[in-house]
Write a structure and sequence with these properties.
Blueprint: H1 34-48, E1 55-59, E2 74-77, H2 83-93, E3 98-104, H3 105-111, H4 113-122, E4 127-132, H5 162-165, H6 171-176, E5 183-188, H7 192-210, E6 216-221, H8 225-228, H9 232-246, E7 250-254, H10 271-277, E8 297-305, H11 310-323, E9 327-334, E10 342-350, E11 364-367, H12 370-376, E12 385-389, E13 403-407, H13 409-416, H14 422-433, H15 439-449, H16 453-472
Parallel strand pairs: 1-2, 1-3, 3-4, 4-6, 5-6, 8-11, 11-12, 12-13
Antiparallel strand pairs: 5-7, 8-10, 9-10
Helix pairs in contact: 1-7, 3-4, 13-14, 13-16, 14-16, 15-16
The structure holds thiamine diphosphate and iron/sulfur cluster.
Length: 477
């Protein structure tokens, strides 16, 4: 008699840290939930194809948001519905990786409906697993785009009606109607046989990617006993008797056997071509090399009214940092007004890799209006720097554990004849007092920012004025 020892797939971590202290192998899923089964099928396929260490799984917002606690692979968590966009970026920058977009029906068919259509239409070479449980599980059982007519949910307590909520969306049929996808199939997980069939589909979608075949999409009808208010056996039965009747199972499209492997390197531009594409100046051998300290780790917040050029100043700083060979990030935050609302941006410049682009505790705060100084002063790290436009406000930072630089940027800009150059005056001051900005790189880049001669002239003057101010600046200790 032979003995078969069943063990967890190597595609899973040995211990699930999601629930430390509890039984090591329990997931956060409800008993009878389909997510766990699908995880197992994916983990096994990645292991069996020898690609688990090369795989990057994008987990969605929804009950499977914590997939990264389970898969022993590369894991990323994407904002609601955005997994296909994140998967696109990952696959294009790492074409040899196996990229999986794992999404629920709320995630994929509601908030992310647009993302998935365009990723499919572009034929991104990724594998998408679409868990259709006809409900929003995580948030307590609200209607999803795939909720059936008559199905009761917390937001359709009398049952979904066509008149009120329209028809359940058949995502697989829509995706299969597009030209680019190579493989689209709908399967279910309702009993051993159907799970075994799902296993086959999962493997095919992953194998297609290993063989560089293109976009594969597997819709999995899956149980949500909690949201459906059923026992696990009832939920399995309901998939067979009801859900699968509305969402017919089967292969909707399969051209994977007919297509040649894709050349996935075509998105990767050699670095010198990137430089040309974004207009970087050629390296100038005669220029003295600026020595950047190896400990650059600046986290900068620049804040003011819309129209004062605070977002532009942030873009420029990241541009200069990039040209110095630093890692950089920039993200804006602004209100709906085109002019006059508040705006700020987060800039990071560092020798080390940058994780989140958010600046929570700035090393440098640039405040060009009073509300910005009042709001962000407290966030600056002890020993950090605050530059503020003291021609526009009559307050000074109250903290004494930071370095304070009053800069009459707007007054100087007005004297030069153009208020809008105030942000370049500020740039000059920051360049003058900081060790991470190369004055020469700024000078050589300004002509690419201000392409018209009269604008370049006045902004060059503003920059020089800023440097003069920096040299003479009495910082308030
Ligand atoms: C931008 C954003 N909007 C809304 C939410 C709230 N939210 C969390 S999960 C979810 C729906 C998840 O449903 P589904 O994708 O079907 O996954 P399931 O939980 O059923 O696996 C929503 C609307 C959110 N987290 N983020
Ligand atoms: S709510 Fe539904 S989808 Fe979420 S874990 Fe529970 S059974 Fe699974």
């Amino acid at each position: 008699m032979s003995t078969k020892i069943l063990s967890k797939s190597e595609g899973f971590y040995d211990v699930y840290d999601r629930r430390p202290g509890t039984d090591k192998d329990t997931t956060h899923y409800c008993p009878g939930c389909g997510h766990g089964i699908l995880h197992k099928l994916i983990a096994e396929a990645l292991t069996d194809f020898g690609v688990k260490d090369n795989a990057i799984i994008i987990s969605p917002v929804g009950c499977s948001v914590f997939a990264y606690y389970y898969f022993s692979a590369g894991n990323l968590q994407a904002a609601h519905g955005r997994a296909p966009a994140v998967a696109t970026g990952v696959k294009r920058s790492l074409p040899e990786s196996i990229v999986i977009s794992y999404q629920g029906d709320g995630d994929l068919a509601a908030i992310g409906g647009n993302e998935i259509l365009h990723a499919a239409n572009r034929g991104e070479a990724i594998s998408v697993f679409f868990v259709n449980n006809a409900i929003y599980g995580m948030t307590g059982g609200q209607m999803a785009p795939t909720t059936l007519i008559g199905q009761k949910t917390t937001t359709t307590p009398y049952g979904r009606t066509v008149a009120n909520e329209g028809y359940p969306i058949k995502m697989s049929e829509i995706i299969a109607s597009l030209t680019a996808p190579v493989y689209v199939e709908r399967v279910m997980m309702a009993d051993t046989k159907s799970i075994s069939n799902t296993r086959r589909a999962v493997r095919k979608a992953i194998k297609n990617q290993v063989e560089k075949k293109g976009f594969s999409f597997v819709e999995v009808l899956s149980t949500c006993p909690t949201g459906w208010k059923m026992t696990a056996p009832q939920a399995e039965e309901w998939i067979k008797t009801t859900l699968a009747q509305h969402f017919p199972l089967g292969v909707l499209k399969d051209i994977s056997g007919d297509v040649e492997p894709l050349n996935l390197d075509h998105h990767l531009l050699p670095t010198d071509r990137i430089g040309k594409a974004i207009n970087l100046p050629e390296a100038d051998a005669d220029q003295p090399k600026f020595v950047i300290p190896d400990t650059v780790n600046e986290e900068i917040k620049i804040s003011g009214f819309g129209g004062q050029g605070v977002l532009s100043l942030g873009v420029w700083l990241s541009e200069f940092g990039m040209r110095e060979g630093l890692n950089v990030s920039w993200i804006p935050s602004y209100g709906p007004e085109m002019r006059g609302g508040t705006a700020h941006c987060h800039v990071k410049l560092a020798n080390r890799p940058i994780g989140s682009p958010l600046v929570v505790h700035p090393t440098i705060l640039v405040a060009t209006n009073r509300p910005s100084l009042e709001k962000f002063e407290k966030e600056v790290i002890p020993g950090g720097k605050i530059f503020w436009d003291n021609s526009l406000m009559d307050i000074t930072p109250s903290r004494t554990d930071i370095i304070r630089y009053p800069v009459p940027a707007t007054e100087i800009a007005n004297q030069l004849g153009n208020t809008k150059t105030a942000n370049v005056v500020m740039l000059g001051v920051i360049t003058g007092v900081s060790e991470f900005l190369d004055e020469n790189i700024v000078r050589r880049t300004l002509p690419q920012i201000f392409k018209k001669k009269h604008l370049l002239d006045i902004n060059m003057q503003a920059f020089n004025k800023g440097l003069e101010v920096a040299a003479s600046l009495k910082r308030i200790a």
